[in-house]
Design goal:
The complex is a heterodimer of chains A (341) and B (269). By secondary structure, chain A is mainly alpha-helical. Chain A is built from 15 helices and no strands. Chain A starts with a helix and ends with a helix. Chain B is of the alpha/beta class. Chain B has one domain: Rossmann fold (3-Layer(aba) Sandwich). In chain B, 36% of the residues lie in helices and 28% in strands. Chain B is built from ten helices and 13 strands. In chain B, the strands form three sheets. In chain B, strands 7-8-9-4-10-11 form a six-stranded mixed beta sheet, sandwiched between helices. In chain B, helix 6 links the parallel strand 8 and strand 9. In chain B, helix 3 crosses helix 4, helix 3 packs parallel to helix 5 and helix 5 packs parallel to helix 6. Classes of the chains: A mainly alpha (341), B alpha/beta (269). At the A-B interface, helix 1, helix 9 and helix 10 of A face helix 2, strand 7, helix 3 and helix 4 of B. Chain A: GO terms for molecular function: transmembrane transporter activity.
Chain lengths: 341, 269
């Protein structure tokens, strides 16, 4: 009995199981994702292309130049959006927090549009920086607006401010797109364009995302404490201001970099952390790695699905997520109605 | 011992507390009392370094608390804020475990001693049978005890509580107060609490500090503080003070609003 009580504290075994199964699913997903598409390729050919690459074979070229970077981007970006959502939900104690809902994605998108229009030929590295700044400005606007209201920040107010700021920023990006005739290029972003990811982009974005993901793991314990409330966390001896700042930088990096690569993909950051929490409980030391793995897995499966629904055309992946995400959002909002209002 | 020196506290531009000098005696239960908006919670939070004062100092054993490393302070002083809420699904044991945070390093694996303290805190608050229940599914009194257990797991000689009995019915109020009294008796902990009920303060506290508009009107034993003219000044009510037939301690029986207050009320009405 004695040990029972204390060991219940977290559910490491379930978490490890989720992570291991998730990683297998991701590996399988990558293989599957490489083989399906406009041109179907056998799994054995996939393996061959990876191990004995032959540039003269078209299939190998498709795999190496198009499908592999796309699949890796799926996993990275899915993990990033999910972890960004998990951190935001923990830090703000808001079950509805998500980079999409709180305007970060819209901010990053606007800056991408601005760069396309005014700074064509910008290096991808600089584009990431602008995207990060866009996310930061949007976050500042949303927090500013919602804390100005009497009664201060509440979860629902944050989401409302997020919706308003998102609408404004999205309208601005669309305006820029129409005026500068960039609709085609930008449409890729809006719809969630994983398809266009190239090796050169992947090389630039990966270090940022990996650093941010590792940072989120290091911060995970502090985020659990923050989820008890600022005053409790401070009382327990946590440097709350510092943790919040680091957490916010990580979130902006994850969301900003991801949006700059694949466009604003909403809802994955809202849904995945809730699923992770369902499995592993309230400890962010487990919620964050599980969200990463589940987010990566979801994204790659959704991308495969997007290519299989209506071949040879690709269904925009953002549409797929909205189909799952909207009902889920309503469910969470209803469930937590009392605490949220 | 905790002492404040010329403490000024302000939210933005609004000064809440001016030139406050109070002393919290060690190994005693101290009650901060005052009307709504008198600044008592603000004072408690500032003494616990949750808020930064505009000027002045809070000294914990002679050292300025806002300059000390916050984790070191957390080994000396635990604070339970008003009406805390745990994330949905967090069990009592989960919650109490976080009380060990100031004593842990790195990624936070539990030592044998940590586990023993967690066990003890759960037992001491009578929460053993609820140890695996989610905090959000407990009754108000049980929830409050779970949070107190977390503060106990912090193993601090000093314990601050901000209105630990609000939103509780009478039985649950007594339950919490008896627990605090027991902790004081068994462990000689210094306890400081903000309480609304004057008679609770009188019965459970050894030292009372009556606060009005951020300044001390009177500090002393319940006998010294529970006097009609002081109560009138602090709360704006007229009352009789009688002796509790069981304990001999002063009890406050309010019967009317004081004249100035009455005029105010009429004026508003």
């Amino acid at each position: 009995m004695k040990n029972d009580t204390v060991n219940q504290y977290s559910r490491p075994w379930i978490a490890i199981t989720v992570i291991v199964i998730g990683i297998f699913a991701i590996v399988f997903g990558i293989a599957l994702s490489i083989s399906v598409g406009a041109a179907n390729i056998q799994l054995s050919t996939v393996w061959e292309a990876l191990v004995h690459y032959n540039p003269n074979r078209t299939e190998h070229a498709i795999i190496q130049d198009l499908r592999l970077p796309r699949s890796l981007a799926d996993v990275l970006v899915g993990a990033s959006f999910a972890v960004a959502g998990a951190i935001m939900q923990g830090m703000t104690r808001n079950p509805l927090a998500d980079a999409g809902l709180l305007g970060l994605n819209a901010g990053a998108t606007l800056m991408v549009a601005v760069c396309f229009a005014f700074l064509p030929g910008l290096s991808y590295n600089s584009l990431i920086l602008f995207s990060f700044l866009g996310a930061a400005v949007a976050a500042g606007l949303v927090y500013g607006i919602s804390s100005l209201a009497r009664g201060g920040l509440t979860p629902v107010r944050l989401v409302l401010a997020g919706a308003a700021v998102s609408a404004l920023l999205t309208a601005l990006s669309e305006g820029i797109a129409i005026h500068f005739q960039l609709s085609q290029e930008l449409a890729f972003w809006y719809a969630g364009g994983v398809a266009g990811v190239k090796w050169s982009q992947l090389k630039v974005m990966t270090p940022w995302l990996v650093v941010a993901l590792v940072g989120s793991l290091l911060l995970s314990r502090s985020i659990t404490l923050l989820s008890l409330g600022d005053e409790v966390a401070t009382g327990l001896g946590q440097k709350t201001g510092l943790v919040k700042m680091l957490g916010m930088i990580i979130v902006l990096l994850l969301a900003g970099v991801s949006v700059s690569a694949v466009g604003p993909i909403g809802f994955i950051g809202l849904v995945v952390p809730h699923i992770a929490r369902f499995f592993v409980g309230v400890d962010y030391r487990w919620i964050i790695p599980c969200s990463a793995v589940l987010g990566g897995g979801f994204m790659i499966m959704a991308d495969i699905g997007a290519r299989m629904i209506n071949p040879p055309y690709e269904t925009p992946i953002g549409v797929l997520f909205a189909l799952i995400g909207v009902p889920f959002f309503l469910y969470v909002a209803r469930k937590g109605r009392r605490e949220l209002s | 011992m905790i002492v404040t020196e010329n403490l000024d506290i302000a939210y933005d531009q609004m000064v809440i507390v001016k030139q406050l000098n109070i002393e919290i005696p060690s190994h005693k239960i101290t009650a901060l009392v005052g009307a709504n908006g008198s600044g008592k919670s603000t004072i408690l939070k500032t003494m616990a370094r949750l808020l930064k004062p505009k000027s002045g100092h809070v000294l914990l054993d002679g050292k300025a608390i806002h300059q000390l490393r916050t984790k070191e302070v957390a080994k000396q002083l635990a604070i339970l804020p008003q009406n805390p809420t745990a994330p949905e699904g967090m069990t009592v044991t989960d919650l109490v475990t976080y009380g060990r945070f100031p004593h842990q390093r790195g990624f936070g694996s539990l030592t044998k001693q940590d586990k023993e303290v967690i066990e003890w805190a759960i037992e001491a608050t009578g929460m053993k049978e609820f140890a695996h229940r989610p905090v959000d599914q407990l009754s108000g009194g049980q929830r409050q005890r779970a949070w107190i257990a977390m503060a106990l797991a912090q193993e601090t000689p000093i314990l601050f509580l901000d209105e630990p009995t609000t939103f509780l019915d009478m039985a649950h109020q007594l339950e919490v107060l008896n627990l605090l009294e027991e902790l004081h008796e068994k462990e000689r902990r210094t306890i400081v609490m903000v309480v609304h009920d004057l008679n609770h303060a009188s019965r459970y506290a050894h030292h009372m500090i009556a606060i009005k508009k951020g300044t001390v009107v009177k500090a002393g034993t319940p006998m010294e503080v529970m006097q009609p003219h002081i109560i009138e000044e602090v709360f704006g009510i007229q009352c009789d003070i009688i002796r509790d037939p069981r304990t001999g301690l002063p009890l406050c029986l309010p019967y009317a609003l004081s004249r100035s207050k009455k005029e105010q009320v009429h004026h508003i009405g």
